[in-house]
Design a protein that fits this description.
There is one protein chain. This protein is mostly beta strands and 335 residues long. It has a domain of 160 residues. The chain is 7% helix and 39% strand. It contains 4 helices and 23 strands. A hairpin with a 2-residue loop joins strand 18 and strand 19. The longest helix has 7 residues.
């Protein structure tokens, strides 16, 4: 195996002393949410934890971010200033992910709610065609995407991640706790959109394999899946019996996947396990997979002293990245 560089990022107070100076870009303004209870608003103290950072390749100065409590925020000057994305007055204002249509920088798709933990549930996928001025739900009617029914709040659905075809904005995937879903007409009128379940299971993550021209997709959650036909059908990949994923007795298991365009045949798989909400037991391990031979390699386990278990597991927004041009350089968040 090539030499691997792991860079474990620290909380800001520690980072200032040991690893250079970081500065906060924002957003810092709390949401103007009429639906949020006062005690909840006080607890989050502003925007809340941020779940993602995404970009629009056509607009290099634009940055998207969002949180389970603060909703969607956009910067058009590389983080100098921020504006609200129009989600403040949703019944559930949280946003767990966003994708931009390749046809227009004004058309966005968001996954509603908290995709990682128990702060809020999801009401589905929403779409804007005017940069967040107005939104519409595109959950479908006859062939629909699963979402939380407010009349049945005990049956909670979460959507962790969206993936759009960079060549065709009609093709949109949603990784949910009720399966992996695909819409092939995501740009149609809201009442005409149809969703199809393409894989069963609990899903948290998905991506294209670079250099596959959109033909190969990878998805993960409580298992690892691969599609070789452009995302219409998925097969579950076999996990080695000797690894922690198969041996752990912790009930909540999650696989997070990352891949670098510089090495499209190597998939990095971060495994975490815990007991769910307020868990006191954690486990975290890192693997690599050769996608050509399907050969797995154990890289390392993360001890409790690093705190990685808490930062990659329940409610921690997949805090793991691989460098786009140096595939042996990985970044983790830690306590």
């Amino acid at each position: 195996m090539k030499r691997l560089l792991l860079i474990l990022t620290l909380l800001p107070s520690t980072l200032l002393a040991q690893h250079g100076i970081w500065r906060e870009l924002g957003p810092t303004h709390p949401p103007e949410n009429a639906q949020m209870r006062p005690e909840t608003f006080t607890r989050i103290k502003g925007t809340g934890r941020l779940a993602f950072v995404e970009f629009d390749t056509r607009l290099p100065n634009r940055i998207f971010t969002g949180s389970p409590s603060g909703g969607l925020f956009i910067s058009d000057d590389r983080g100098v200033s921020w504006r609200n994305g129009g989600t403040d007055f949703f019944w559930v204002p949280g946003v767990s992910h966003i994708q931009v249509a390749p046809e227009s920088s004004s058309t966005w798709f968001i996954a509603n709610g908290d995709g990682d933990a128990d702060f809020s549930f999801s009401l589905g996928v929403a779409r804007t065609r005017d940069e967040g001025q107005t939104w519409e739900w595109i959950n479908g009617i006859e062939e629909s995407l699963p979402f939380t029914d407010l009349n049945k709040p005990w049956k909670i659905v979460r959507i962790r991640k969206l993936l759009i075809d960079p060549r065709d904005g009609n093709r949109l995937w949603a990784a949910t706790t009720e399966g992996l879903f695909l819409a092939t007409n995501a740009l149609a009128k809201a009442d005409q959109i149809r969703w199809k379940k393409v894989a069963s299971g609990v899903f948290y993550d998905l991506c294209f394999q670079p250099a596959s021209m959109g033909r190969v997709l990878l998805a993960s959650g409580d298992g690892l899946y691969r599609s070789r036909d452009g995302g219409f059908q998925f097969e579950q990949m076999t996990l080695p019996d000797e690894f922690g994923f198969q041996k752990d007795d912790l009930p909540v298991k999650q696989l997070t996947i990352r891949i670098s365009p510089a090495d499209p045949s190597t998939l990095w798989v971060a495994y975490t396990a815990n007991e769910g909400h307020s868990s006191r037991k954690f486990n975290a391990e890192l693997y690599s997979v050769d996608l050509d031979s399907e050969q797995w390699s154990f890289v390392r386990a993360f001890g409790k002293d690093l705190g990685v278990q808490r930062r990659l597991g329940h409610g921690r927004s997949q805090a793991f990245a691989v460098h786009p041009t140096n595939p042996d350089e990985l970044y983790w968040e830690m306590c």
